[in-house]
Design brief:
Elements (H helix, E strand, L loop, with lengths): L1 E7 L4 E7 L5 E5 L6 H9 L3 E6 L11 H8 L2 E5 L21 E3 L4 E4 L2 E7 L8 E7 L8 E5 L2 E2 L2 E2 L4 H5 L5 H17 L7 E4 L17 E2 H7 L3 H5 L3 H9 L8 H11 L11 E2 L2 H9 L4 E4 L3 H4 L8 E2 L6 H8 L11 E4 L3 H12 L6 E5 L11 E3 L11 E4 L3 H6 L6 E2 L19 E5 L4 H12 L3 E5 L2 H6 L10
Parallel strand pairs: 3-4, 4-5, 5-6, 10-13, 15-19, 16-17, 16-18, 18-19, 20-24, 21-22, 21-23, 23-24
Antiparallel strand pairs: 1-2, 2-3, 7-8, 8-9, 9-10, 11-12, 13-14
Helix pairs in contact: 4-7, 11-12
Length: 479
């Protein structure tokens, strides 16, 4: 058996290729949309991707299931659990292999000597499936479980995302009860030796305390996880209280991902060539507001001068994570093309690959330098000047958990991943200057660039929270 983990550091997301080396058949679980990595991995190992599946309707990235099936002719397998509100759309029935296979609990899919068994594990979402893998050449019982967003290393998938980002009302309580039952009846019923391979690692917003180690075992999680003692004592209410407490903010784009992933993401097909803009061509396009420039530099460089109304999306390492905060493909009937600041065509293509993972499909070109363009310097104020600075609002754009552990006196909180969708919580753009900060400055620069594009006057605190707390006499407030 071949079992390969493909990890996206940007979104802290893991997908898996499982293949039978005897027959050359392979399946990909939880694929992302830039699919070259799977095609290359299959070719390297002499395998053919014959099936594609996913553990659930994802919220944090746009699924590549349809994309990979269209490129390979693979069949699509999808959960058919969770009820009518969680049924995948008909777009998944239009692939080259015919309608998607709709899986119920216990469904088995054979790949030569290997069997994948679908296990309904609701809680994070109602339709969630995990997959038990049996390598028939070595054993007659499962040795691995792909747990998706059900069980992470050291944590569990949060059941509150449907409330936070998908318009649900108090679904978190039913989800938490489902998660308790899934752990008791499905997960802990397995032998301790079964290896656990989750869909996310440290840094994902799909849990609150994910470990950085890529795998675990049923026995390890049973013994050492925070939730194990609640299951051991059958304390459902204690489990629910701890699970739901202290969850980080859910990014607003999660709601868009849920809808698109349920209906079926648009197919990208072959990548079109990116246009390299000249200075004159970009200047003209910016003057008539027909493109949006994405300044991909570190905020320290952005502060030395950038194009007015450019969005700061540092990359490529975290371009998807931050891009989804400040680019809303649904905001305009016809989204403006994006032009990336990139050192080369190769870097621009890498940035584009990251952005399509969150459904930002309008990258059309790049430019290698801002020389010759009209530049502005974003307003930055020193931490010592904050108290006396005339402002309409002091805004903390960190997560609410960070805010609770310590924030500047008088600051309001609205996380960077939610700001564009909640401008009604801010003063009007003409009310005065917003003073903003995050932990060290990166998230603040991203958010501030989006607010400036919306017409706000924004002043960023140099060094953000860490810079402010380093000043003698400054005492943060805790809540």
């Amino acid at each position: 058996m071949l079992l390969e983990r493909i990890y996206d550091e940007d979104l802290a997301q893991a997908s898996y290729l499982v293949g039978c080396q005897a027959t050359g058949d392979a399946i990909v679980v939880d694929a992302r949309r830039d699919i070259a990595v799977y095609l290359d991995l299959a070719a390297k190992n002499g395998m053919t991707i014959t099936a594609v599946t996913e553990t659930h309707i994802h919220a944090d990235y746009l699924s590549g299931t349809r994309e990979l099936a269209a490129a390979t002719g693979a069949s699509i397998l999808l959960s058919d659990e969770g009820g009518p509100d969680w049924t995948y759309g008909s777009e998944f029935d239009t692939g080259p292999a015919g309608p998607a296979v709709r899986m119920k609990h216990g469904h088995r899919h054979a790949l030569g000597n290997i069997t994948l068994e679908a296990v309904h594990t609701p809680g994070h979402t109602p339709e969630h499936m995990s997959f038990l893998i049996t390598d028939g050449a070595q054993a007659d019982e499962p040795g691995f479980m792909l747990t998706g967003d059900f069980v992470f290393v050291g944590d569990l998938g949060r059941p509150d995302l449907l409330d936070e980002a998908a318009g649900g009302v108090d679904t978190r309580f039913a989800g938490a009860r489902d998660l308790f039952a899934s752990l008791r009846d499905r997960f802990l019923a397995l032998p301790d030796y079964v290896q656990v391979l989750p869909a996310h690692g440290a840094g994902s917003a799909c849990g609150k305390a994910l470990g950085a180690i890529p795998t675990s075992t049923v026995g390890y999680e049973r013994t050492f996880s925070w939730w194990g003692r609640y299951l051991a004592s059958n304390d459902e209410q204690g489990f629910i209280d701890e699970l739901l407490g202290g969850q980080p903010d859910a990014h607003a784009y999660f709601g868009r991902m849920k809808v698109e992933n349920r209906e079926g993401p648009a197919l990208l097909g072959d990548d079109s060539d990116l246009v390299e803009y000249s200075t004159a061509a970009l200047r003209a396009a910016l003057e008539d507001d027909s493109v949006i420039l994405i300044d991909t530099r570190h905020h320290a460089e952005v502060h030395t001068g950038t194009v007015a109304r450019a969005l700061n999306i540092p990359g490529p390492a975290k371009a998807a994570s931050y891009g989804a905060w400040v680019v809303d493909p649904e905001a305009e009937a016809e989204a403006r093309p994006l032009v990336l600041l990139a050192s080369s065509l190769e870097e621009a293509e890498e940035l584009r690959d990251h952005l399509v993972r969150v459904g930002i499909d309008t990258v059309r070109g790049y430019i290698t330098s801002l020389d010759g363009l009209d530049l502005v310097r974003p307003t930055v104020i020193q931490p010592e000047a904050v108290d006396g600075f005339d402002r309409s609002l002091l805004l903390d754009v960190r997560n609410k958990t960070e805010y609770a552990s310590g924030h500047l006196p008088g600051a309001a909180q609205l996380s960077g991943g939610r700001v564009l969708w909640h401008l009604d919580q801010l003063p009007a753009p003409d009310a005065g200057t917003l003073v903003t900060y995050c932990q060290s400055g990166v998230r603040n620069s991203v958010t501030a660039s989006a607010l400036r594009r919306e017409g706000y006057d924004v002043a960023e605190i140099a060094g953000s929270y860490l810079g402010w707390t380093a000043v003698p006499g400054h005492q943060p407030v805790t809540t």
